[in-house]
Specification:
16 helices, four-stranded antiparallel sheet
Length: 565
């Protein structure tokens, strides 16, 4: 039996360029290899664009799970739309692919800079994130049908074999791009320049394939149009690379309100310091310079004009509730909690476990920050460990690494609303911490704003109670929340619970949870330094929290984090 021709099976005649073999300047085998090489490069660039959007959105907005879900779902949906739209370009596959790659290089390469600009000057990045994910997804989705057409025109083969070759090159390229982003591009070039360089590579690969390998398929007008477009895209991307540093400085000024005097990428996070240069920038002193502010990944962690109240509220209740010779601080690499701890004469040793060595270095060397923390990390009683707090606690529980129990454990960690921090607010984490507590030991946890994010705050309380500790939640008036994201910002509005309010803007609240094996007592310690948190303030803080408790909340675990509910 003789099989009918393909056109007879489909009932239609394919477009002329789709059916005709390409006139290549090289043998068909080499041409096919070059097309697959471009597939590899384009796949690597496409995945870099995706990862760059996720990483930058996480840095700007927070909550990596939500950002990854938004970017990937919108992009995959858009890829389907792009594949459908590309059907109309198959009759001119070479021209269509060249135009798609030039557009993708420009949009993908400039996406990081545009997204950062929307955040810095318009305080709006979510809509821009969705728009870039949609456009990049459409362009990436259009690549595969056009490349499939081109590779078939180089040398005809069965559809299954062509798809297998194409997807193999695509997946390997995605692997390379996925590894290159965190291990090469991000540490060596940063997000802005890394995206721009990726766009340039994308533009060169796509342009070279069309303008050289398939040049005989192009009319003179199409050839010159694509050449000008590719050169223009390269020029724009190169201009972006040259302007990346001044652009980033201008964006920082727009974000932080003043010129950032220190801005470093530590490999873990971006650390920015503003203010704190005046002679009176230290604790409890007024001076001519603006107060020091410390930002980690764009979120306000320390403000020189309010941090004293925060750290007094964090440290003093736990220190006053019993013995405090041995203290463990989880986080707190800025040295400010340690400053408060060292004000107690009975303290014999303080262990600080901080993840980021860059923060520790600034806390020891920056004039403004050392003035604020009173050079606390240089005290001979302080031992600093650079490690992840969860891993360090787990290692202390292993045979051969056991340590003497601690009288006080201070958890001075980022807010549980930040996805990367949820394991540090889990049942497993508090279980490990409890094993290091002395019989009369206390654990105090910074638990986030108790009103604006009440469910998360009371989930922290429920999680601490789930490991067998009795808790005493409390809150203190703090600075209003800012758009920098959930961290040491407080609630935007106070509640009428009788707490003393400070002068200035209407304050919100910082929320804390104090825990022990027996219900901890509130009150000043015999060696408490002046001015401690007063008994009246603590009584008001407890009263305000206990009446707002949300009962029946489940504990948060590693496998079931509940702070995003």
């Amino acid at each position: 039996m003789i099989d009918p021709p393909e056109s007879a099976l489909t009932g239609t005649l394919g477009p002329p360029e789709v059916m005709m073999p390409a006139r290549l300047p090289v043998p068909a085998g080499l041409g096919r290899l070059l097309v697959l090489g471009v597939v590899f490069v384009c796949a690597a660039c496409g995945l870099v664009y995706e990862l760059e959007l996720v990483a930058l959105a996480t840095y700007l907005v927070g909550d990596s799970v939500t950002q990854a879900s938004v970017v990937l779902s919108v992009m995959v949906f858009a890829m389907g739309i792009g594949a459908l739209l590309a059907k109309r370009l198959r009759c001119r596959a070479a021209v269509g692919f060249g135009a798609v790659e030039a557009g993708l290089a420009l949009v993908g390469g400039s996406s990081a800079m545009a997204l950062y600009a929307c955040f810095a000057w318009f305080a709006q990045s979510r809509s821009a994130l969705v728009a870039f994910s949609l456009v990049i997804g459409v362009l990436i989705g259009a690549e595969v049908p056009l490349l499939m057409t081109l590779i078939q025109r180089v040398r005809r083969q069965d559809a299954g074999g062509a798809v297998a070759d194409l997807f193999a090159a695509d997946y390997v390229g995605a692997l390379v791009g996925g590894l290159a982003f965190p291990f090469l591009l991000l540490p060596s070039l940063g997000q802005l320049t890394g995206a721009l360089v990726t766009g340039a590579v994308n533009d060169v690969a796509g342009g070279a394939l069309v303008l050289w390998l398939f040049r005989r398929d192009l009319s003179r007008r199409a050839r010159w149009t694509l050449l000008v477009a590719n050169v223009l895209v390269l020029a724009l991307l190169a201009t972006g690379v040259l302007l990346a540093a001044p652009f980033e400085r201008a964006a920082r000024r727009a974000v932080y309100g003043s010129a950032a005097r220190v801005a470093v990428q530590t490999g873990i996070q971006e650390v920015v310091l503003t203010g704190g240069t005046g002679t009176g920038a230290g604790r409890a002193r007024k001076g001519s310079g603006p107060p020091l502010e410390l930002y980690l990944d764009g979120r306000l962690r320390v403000s020189g004009d309010t941090e004293c109240r925060y750290h007094e509220a964090l440290v003093h209740p736990a220190m006053a509730a019993g013995p405090h010779a041995r203290v463990l601080v989880l986080g707190g690499g800025d040295g400010l909690a340690v400053r408060e701890i060292l004000r107690y004469r009975a303290v014999r040793s303080v262990t600080v476990v901080e993840l980021d060595p860059g923060v520790l270095r600034l806390a020891r060397t920056d004039p403004g920050l050392t003035r604020l923390n009173d050079h606390s990390l240089g005290d001979p009683r302080v031992h600093v460990v650079t490690a992840d707090a969860f891993d360090w606690l787990r290692d202390r529980d292993a045979p051969g690494h056991r340590t003497a129990p601690y009288d006080v454990i201070v958890s001075d960690l980022p807010d549980p609303g930040i996805t990367a921090s949820t394991k540090l607010y889990s049942q497993e984490f508090y279980g490990l911490a409890t094993r290091l507590l002395a019989d009369r030991g206390r654990l105090v946890v910074h638990a986030g704003p108790p009103v604006a994010r009440a469910r998360a705050y009371w989930t922290v309380d429920a999680t601490v109670r789930s490991v067998g500790l009795a808790t005493d939640p409390y809150r203190m008036p703090g600075r209003p929340a800012s758009f920098f994201g959930p961290d040491r910002s407080a609630d935007p509005t106070p509640r009428s619970t009788g707490e003393p309010l400070t002068a200035g803007p209407t304050p919100g609240y910082w929320g804390f949870v104090l825990a022990a094996r027996q219900r901890p007592r509130f009150g000043p310690a015999p060696d408490a330094p002046p001015p401690p948190v007063t008994r009246e303030a603590l009584r008001a803080a407890r009263h305000g929290d206990l009446r707002d408790r949300i009962p029946g909340l489940p504990a948060s675990t590693l496998m079931r984090p509940r702070y995003q509910d």
